[in-house]
Request: fold
Amino acid sequence: MEQSTVPLNRATLLKRAFFNRDPRIVSKQLLGKILIRKQKSNILGGRIIEVEAYLGADDAAAHAAAGRTARNDVLFGPPGHAYVYFIYGVHYCLNISCLPEGDAGCVLIRALEPIAGIEGMAEARGLHVKHPDLSSPRILRAVASGPGKLCEALQITRTRDNSKDLLSPDSDLIVVDDGYRAKKVITTKRIGITKSAEMPLRYLIARNPFISGKQPAC
DNA sequence: ACTCCGATTGAA
DNA sequence: TCAATCGGAGTC
Reply:
């Protein structure tokens, strides 16, 4: 039985309760949902195909581990909001806050499969200049196969998007469900961290070619 | 005020 | 393998 999906304009916003849960549960459920940026005359978006869960005080790798600060304040706020931070002086990363007000926890969006406004995203990434042929699988994969890349593709910055409600119809950055369901989810260790590096909190859709890094064994 | 360093990326 | 490049957090 083949699953059914609806067009983007009929996809539904996720509910607050969806994110009012443990980040590990949200991570797995979030795979297959769609992250959308609404531009003036353009829609940019991709299917979420790789994420990582970050917990609270018991997770040394989490920004919330050392307690509430001006920088990580969103993590302690209500669920379903964007936590955007700047890393290595170069890139932004997007997280979505989980758990009720007062409890920190989030999901890091690590990779998207481009599905809408691909030309616009490629342009934001600076790919169109050197690589005009967007139909090339290699170039298509370069659009959003990493946390920093997808932020650049959707023009996500801290000043523009941090603390934004991702579940509001008024928001220009939202998460929606078009009915797609991942057939198989793979869990691995998180990438690029030194503290709490052993916890299996990275989740990705099996065999999807748009993930960051190389394909793990099934 | 000063130092250290990171949930990344792309080029060498 | 490594530089780029910034700001948050801890130390002096």
Observations:
- The domain at 8-205 of chain A is CATH 3.10.300.10 (3-methyladenine DNA Glycosylase; Chain A).
- Chain A has a mean pLDDT of 96.
- Residues 66, 69-72, 85-90 of chain A lie near DNA strand C (CB under 10 Å from a C1').
- Chain A has one domain: 8-205.
